[in-house]
Write a structure and sequence with these properties.
Lyase, Ornithine Decarboxylase, Chain A, domain 1, globular, TIM Barrel, single chain, 12 helices, 408 residues, alpha/beta, 29% helix, binds ligand LLP, 2 domains, 9-stranded mixed beta sheet, 20 strands
Length: 408
Amino acid sequence: MENSVYALQGIPFTQLAAEYGSPLYVYDGEKIQSQVKRLQSAFSGVDLKIKYATKALSNVNILKLMKQFGTGLDAVSLEEVKLGLHAGFTAEEILYTPNCVSFEEIQEAVKLGVMINLDNIPMLERFGTVYGDSVPVCIRINPHIMAGGNSKISVGHIDSKFGISILQLKHVLKVVAAHNMHVVGLHVHTGSDILDADVFLQGAEILFEAAMEFKELNFLDFGGGFKVGYRAGDITTDIEDVGTKVTSAFKAFCAQYGKKLELWFEPGKFLVSECGYLLTTANVVKPTPASTFVGVDSGLNHLIRPMLYDAYHEIYNASNPSGTERVYSIVGYICETDTLGADRKLTEVTEGDIIVIKNAGAYGFSMASNYNSRLRPAEVLVYKGKAHLIRKRETFEELLANQLEIAL
Ligand code: LLP
């Protein structure tokens, strides 16, 4: 709250909704900047490269801001690579970490000049056969660590489809030697919503050991996964603690390796989760014998995290900042259960009120869909005290645009 009003950089949320319509994604540019700075200072003792995980929030204006703030990019699809290049990143600043894509897509990425991160042995073999030592490459290792907030977002365990098992390291080394491959980086990413500095250290230790087998490394990439707070009092990754511990372990490793390497991270949530708000409008306040529902003009089509991961997002009523608190369940307008928040205390809600959902910057718009043939929201960036429309609201014509109406 700013001066008893729910606002961003002095602009009330109610004003943003009135001007740009509802539902609306709103992002705070300065919050992104301060998160970048926090990470940079936590790792000031090493040569840190931040590769922002594009998938978290991929509006090209956000990518341009990241570029200004000094990050590179982590891209997981050719389309994200192209968005990054379009936003002004050089190919060298982009790491491409695909999973289960075709070799043809990987070849396209090689043509664009980005760093390729390979995560399975068949592709490593094909890559070696085609490119030999002519294209430097990174290898994604699966360290077999159980990490992350829940099983859906834990990806470094033994049953995960991601990365090459650390147990297959000997096989990897054979392939690399057979094709004289130029391996310049090793990568791990174990999951999202990781609380504990020790998980990063565990991953690091495994990577350090493997790294001793590769003679030409320039960087080690420890992925993303820092946990941010979703509700008051939530435990979050203590980034300064991770910084201190990982920095000293990394320095000791570099001394042993005999070369100062770059240390890479690929945060998504840490950089953009807290910057984002989803503004919705209360369509109906519906008392039932069980609870009182607030039905808003949005739902799992725009923010799928609560239904997909049981994620908690704080919600408040921006139209009645000082009203009496009551308990509501905030639900969407989608034709299936889409609870955005159950049994929440909100100040009294009247139809037409602007209901704000917090922490909606990461994996909000980027996971939005047209389910129920609903249009996706507009996006607004508030930066240097001014609001800018950075994505128009979809139109009905766009819903039909790719549908070919045949004679029936
Ligand atoms: N690097 C790799 C290889 C990844 O797969 C991911 C996330 C990241 C970095 C960034 O992770 P972050 O720092 O944002 O936790 N959609 C889910 C989380 C799944 C993310 C998948 N990969 C969510 O809304 O929580």
